[in-house]
User: What shape does this take?
Amino acid sequence: MKFFHKPNQAESDRVPPGQHLAKGFPVLTYGETPQVNIEEWEFRVWGLAKPVTFKMSDFLALPQHEFTADFHCVTSWSKLDVKWNGIKVTDFMSLLAIDPKAAHVMEHCYGGYTTNIDLQDFVREENFFAVKLFGEPLPPEHGGPMRLVVPHLYAWKSAKWINGLEFLEEEELGFWERNGYHRRGEPWANERYSNLGF
Ligand SMILES: Nc1nc2c(c(=O)[nH]1)N[C@H]1C(S)=C(S)[C@@H](COP(=O)(O)O)O[C@H]1N2
Ligand SMILES: [Mo]
Assistant: This one.
């Protein structure tokens, strides 16, 4: 079986160092896929922000966009031109009242996964909450009903089953970041492993 294919020149310019193109769209989950009941689904904001809880209808009431983004897993596979639909992080942020001291964000998920991101890396025009993948409702194994996608960082920052944002003044580390992975994870800089000296 072949799991990787060789990129052509145009594609290879888009494949970061140490990465290979995957066949299909692999699923990478630590643990089980959480069972999320859509009626009970909610999304919480807390920490250095006015606390507020959203329902899926609040996200769906925001402008819906199509996104095409490359996806880079730190385990070395990449997938180019993934097609998603969803809500821009910048549109969602316009609903929040953030304390000016906030500089970091912890992403929280159903199932307990966490990952940290700088506020500046989080609030970017190209980041989005995805509700569809290749035109279909986002499958549970890829993070449905809703996941975050942060195209400019390794995909472990793209939290599946995301259900909360905690705004922080000081950086805290998420699940993989506490386990030796890089605090930021920028693929073109090969930021795979921690430089914090554990
Ligand atoms: N909640 C949650 N989000 C997660 C993960 C996870 O285990 N749990 N894995 C991360 C990793 S390492 C990658 S590469 C991508 C994989 O997304 P995919 O399964 O849709 O390909 O999801 C990221 N988001
Ligand atoms: Mo990953």
Summary: The CA atoms of residues 84 and 135 lie 7 Å apart. Residues 56-60 form the longest helix (5 residues). Helices lie at 9-12, 56-60, 89-93, 119-122, 175-178.
